[in-house]
């Protein structure tokens, strides 16, 4: 199955009645996160998480205007209390403890810098977002996913990867270290929780997403050099 198809396959399950399973998307912004949230909102109530509420507000409004149910929660995935509080609020506002899918789409800082010029804070930023953040998020959502193995489709934990998860390019030591950690975690969780009925996948997005932050990137490379969020 194509990776994009795999990413969205679980979203085809119909809504329930009294206690509908919900979906959670962490790391919502104007690109992949918002697009994935809108896709899941066609079948489930969805919770959108981001540190900055401005990153999810438009998507929440769009989903609600289309007749779906969505809530946005300001969340710092690198902070254990913030993540736990978000999950508690999701259960309270969306109801129940059934989670059909949880998506971790946190990018972290993209730092392109010579290795010898990196300071410790810059280097650790990649691991904090993609290593510690993914760890805290997974520990918070996996109990919900394990409680949802009786759904029509396997409950799913999806991690958004990048080219840097497969190869560490020059000048990207901080970013690639975090993405390698994310991929390794996803592999470990897949082997541990797959036999328990939870599907875990690492979806590698091999390219630059065309969002406002990347408008000046690769601008001389032609119209097909970047990936559109809805692709």
Task: Give a description of the structure.
The chain has 231 residues and is of the alpha/beta class. The chain is 39% helix and 15% strand. It has a 6-stranded parallel β-sheet with strand order 3-2-1-4-5-6, sandwiched between helices. The model is unreliable at 12-18 (pLDDT under 50).
Structural class: alpha/beta
Mean pLDDT over the full residue set: 87
Largest sheet: 6 strands, parallel
SSE series = HEHEHEHEHEHE
Q: Can you count the helices?
A: 6
For the largest beta sheet, what order do the strands appear in spatially?
3-2-1-4-5-6
> How would you describe the shape?
globular
Strand content: 15-25%
The percent range for helix content is 25-40%
Distance between the termini: 16 Å
Low-confidence stretches: 12-18
The radius of gyration is 17 Å
Quick overview of this protein structure:
With about 230 residues, the chain is of the alpha/beta class.
List the helices and strands and how they pair.
Blueprint: H1 3-9, E1 22-26, H2 32-41, E2 46-50, H3 57-65, E3 70-74, H4 80-94, E4 99-104, H5 120-146, E5 156-162, H6 173-193, E6 199-205
Parallel strand pairs: 1-2, 1-4, 2-3, 4-5, 5-6
Helix pairs in contact: 2-3, 4-5, 5-6
Comma- or semicolon-separated keywords:
alpha/beta, 231 residues, 39% helix, globular
